[in-house]
Structure formats: C-alpha cells, structure tokens
C-alpha cells in the first residue's frame, strides 16, 4: 500500500547548530541531511551513531568551498531541488541563522511547507500533546533532556522555557511548575540557587 504521508526533510546547518538530540528523530519518518562546512573534519560520535541508525534516511553533505553563507546557499539549493521533486514535502531547516528567514517567507508564498527551528525539539511533529497524562509528559521531558547532553539548561528559568517549547500548546504556569517539581521529586534534577544539576536515566 502506498504511503500518502508527506515526506519531512530535516536540513541541519552544522556550522551553526550541533544537535545533541538527533535520536529524537529516530521514531519518525524523517529524511535527515547534515550540512558540514569544508573545514569541519570531525563530527561527534553520538551524532555519527544516531545518523548510522537512520540508515538510508540520513546523509552528510560536506560543502566544497568556504566563505560567508557558503553553507546556507547549499541548503537553499537542496530545498529548491527537493521541493521540485516533492512539492508536498515539509522542510525543517535547523539553524539559528536568521538569514534564512527571507528565503523561507518567499518559499511559503510559493506554497512550499518550510520553517526554521533553532533546535530539533521545536519541530512540531516532535512536540508532546498538551493533553497527555502527567507521567507521559515527564517521560517525554526526561527523554528530551537526556538527549541534549552538555546542552541541557543550567538555570531553572531556562529549563521552564525548554519544557514549554516541547508541548503543542502553552502550559499553564501552575502545571509547568508541577512538572518541574515532579522532576525534583524523582531526583532527575537538583536545583541549588537556581542552578540545575542532572541525574537522568539513560533510557527513561
């Protein structure tokens, strides 16, 4: 039976963002492309391992030249090429570079489904339904935090913002604090003067 679901492409600007949570994509039918700068000769083991697990749905693209925006132009080219072949596809550029935004606005005006996210966890399909049960929310939060490695929030205020971004709808402040308190109760986090240390399970 033919799969009628549109393809989701994730194009990672590896010069700008080095994601620590690539395994978030593993349970979804994403096609991942990691764009690597000409001078970037190494990738972290965790990233390489996560890419390998995705098999033919993941590949590296190392650009040939250097210079301002060289990698950005490569991403723009691939989006155009893929959109021509797959007009119903969804494109997620993972980059903190706001220089992509004018291009994204133009492509949206051409009915191409595309957006830029700073982090993989912000991809809408990966967000947790806000109506999920409390224990499901905790499991999703812990899994996300575990996947972030050294990039985990170190302040309680930053953690609150990170948790908020994981859900399809904004959480009420009371529920948000209840989730943080539950993380404390389960000793997944320890807060000292607003600073956070973690003790997360490897497989929540």
Fold topology:
Blueprint: E1 8-13, E2 30-36, H1 45-53, E3 58-62, H2 70-85, E4 90-94, H3 101-109, E5 113-117, H4 134-148, H5 156-165, H6 173-185, E6 189-192, E7 195-198
Parallel strand pairs: 1-2, 1-4, 2-3, 4-5
Antiparallel strand pairs: 6-7
CATH top level of the largest domain? Alpha Beta
CATH fold-level name of the largest domain = Rossmann fold
Shape: globular
- Broad structural category: alpha/beta
Q: Mean of residue pLDDT?
A: 87
How do the strands line up in the largest sheet?
3-2-1-4-5
Q: How much β-strand is present in the residues? A: 15-25%
Task: Give the beta-strand count.
Answer: 7
Order of helices and strands: EEHEHEHEHHHEE
Low-confidence stretches: none
Put simply, the count of helices is 6
CATH architecture term of the largest domain: 3-Layer(aba) Sandwich
Distance between the termini: 34 Å
Question: Would you mind describing this structure in some detail?
Answer:
By secondary structure, this protein is an alpha/beta fold. The chain has 2 domains: 8-124, Rossmann fold (3-Layer(aba) Sandwich), CATH 3.40.50; 127-198, Arc Repressor Mutant, subunit A. 35% of the residues lie in helices and 18% in strands. It contains 6 helices and 7 strands. Strands 3-2-1-4-5 form a 5-stranded parallel sheet, covered by helices on one side. A two-stranded antiparallel ribbon has the order 6-7. The longest helix has 16 residues, at 70-85. It starts with 7 loop residues before the first strand and ends in a 6-residue tail after the last strand. The mean pLDDT is 87.
């Amino acid at each position: 039976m033919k799969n009628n679901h549109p393809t989701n492409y994730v194009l990672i600007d590896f010069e700008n963002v080095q994601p620590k949570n690539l395994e978030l994509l593993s349970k979804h039918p994403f096609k991942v492309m990691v764009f690597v700068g000409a001078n970037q000769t190494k990738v972290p083991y965790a990233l390489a391992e996560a890419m390998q697990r995705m098999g033919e749905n993941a590949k590296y693209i190392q650009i040939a030249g250097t210079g301002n925006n060289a990698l950005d132009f490569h991403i723009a080219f691939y989006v155009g090429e893929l959109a021509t072949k797959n007009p119903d596809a969804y494109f997620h550029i993972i980059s903190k570079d706001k220089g992509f935004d004018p291009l994204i606005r133009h492509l949206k005006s051409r009915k191409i489904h595309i957006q830029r996210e700073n982090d993989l966890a912000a991809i809408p399909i990966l967000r947790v339904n806000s109506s999920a049960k409390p224990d499901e929310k905790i499991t999703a939060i812990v899994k996300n935090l575990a996947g972030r490695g050294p990039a985990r929030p170190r302040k309680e205020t930053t953690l609150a913002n990170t948790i908020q971004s994981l859900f399809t709808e904004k959480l009420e402040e009371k529920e948000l604090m209840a989730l943080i308190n539950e993380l404390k109760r389960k000793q997944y986090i320890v807060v000292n003067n607003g600073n956070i240390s973690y003790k997360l399970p490897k497989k929540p």
